[in-house]
Sequence to fold (283 residues):
Amino acid sequence: MRVLVFGENGQVATSLRKRAGDIDVICLGRDQADLGAPDMLRAAIEATDADVIINAAAYTAVDKAETDSDQAEQVNHLAVGTMARAAAKRGIPFLHISTDYVFPGDGDQPWQPDDETGALGVYGATKRRGEEAIEMAGGVYAVLRTSWVVSSTGNNFVKTMLRLGADRDVLTIIDDQTGGPTAADDIADALLTMARAYADGRKDSGIYHFSGAPDCTWAGFAAEIFDQAGITCEITPIPTTDYPTPAARPLNSRLDCSTLETDFGIKRPDWRKSLVTIVKDLT
Ligand SMILES: NC(=O)C1=CN([C@@H]2O[C@H](COP(=O)(O)OP(=O)(O)OC[C@H]3O[C@@H](n4cnc5c(N)ncnc54)[C@H](OP(=O)(O)O)[C@@H]3O)[C@@H](O)[C@H]2O)C=CC1
Ligand SMILES: Cc1cn([C@H]2C[C@H](O)[C@@H](COP(=O)(O)OP(=O)(O)O[C@H]3O[C@@H](C)C(=O)[C@@H](O)[C@H]3O)O2)c(=O)[nH]c1=O
Ligand SMILES: [Mg+2]
Fold:
């Protein structure tokens, strides 16, 4: 089985190669497939002999997107539509990754895949338009919404905490945003399981949720990171209102992941176990 991946150096693309096993995973970097160049995307899909396509490339700089919205729109929406239409034309199933930031974050109930969206910022809004473009393309697809992605490569909260925690005696960390930290390796495993089902003939399309368990706040996440890394750094829990950022973030990022288990047998992984490997790699 062969999988064509858009994205090469990101957290999830790196994990897809690492976790491929006997699956032939071919990653296209910016030089081979720039998401700003629709012709390159169409040409790559027209030429591929892959059984499944996964898009692991995205504009993920949440705050920067507020002032760089044209670029975020191109990468997270327009390019995704181009890929999905080209995949539909070839009859190749298209797997895509989206985010908890498509939701407004009110309430305290886990979001269901068919709940009404309402992004608070440009990043989330462009990611939602990308999902809609896939739904409209008419092919076989699955969108996997995940949250709080961490790994031993790329930029993420674990790396930031290991860096800041080593330097400071005290850190103020948001304690009223709740969600599920998710290891890129676990996302890769989920996507490869899904890819296998589609390569084996699955025809049902849909949006699914996938995040690590248990849900926690960023302060709770930081505490576990410091604990595992043996870092002594006091955490002062703060409300979001004390941490102003260009983009607003959802307070409630809990994702109900049950349909992924029903349809694909994929359970929520314990992020604390996946974190052990990441902390080991980074320390
Ligand atoms: N990070 C997170 O916390 C979360 C991420 N997600 C989603 O998961 C998916 C994977 O995210 P993650 O692996 O963390 O992302 P990263 O930011 O680690 O990687 C994004 C990748 O996209 C590539 N990319 C960006 N712009 C372009 C472009 N114009 N042309 C080609 N490639 C481009 C980057 O390439 P280069 O290396 O060359 O810059 C990079 O390899 C994304 O869809 C994201 O929205 C969902 C929830 C949380
Ligand atoms: C560095 C730092 C961050 N924080 C907070 C800010 C923020 O709410 C939270 C996490 O910081 P980040 O910069 O990692 O947040 P952010 O980049 O918004 O993370 C998001 O990225 C996109 C791509 C997604 O799709 C989301 O699921 C989510 O993972 O921690 C503190 O409270 N104190 C600190 O010292
Ligand atoms: Mg970030």
Notes: Residues 2-156+181-213+254-270 form a domain with the Rossmann fold fold (CATH 3.40.50.720). Residues 60, 62, 99-101, 147-149, 157, 160, 164, 171-174, 177, 218, 243, 249 surround dtdp-4-keto-L-rhamnose (ligand 2) (CB under 6 Å).
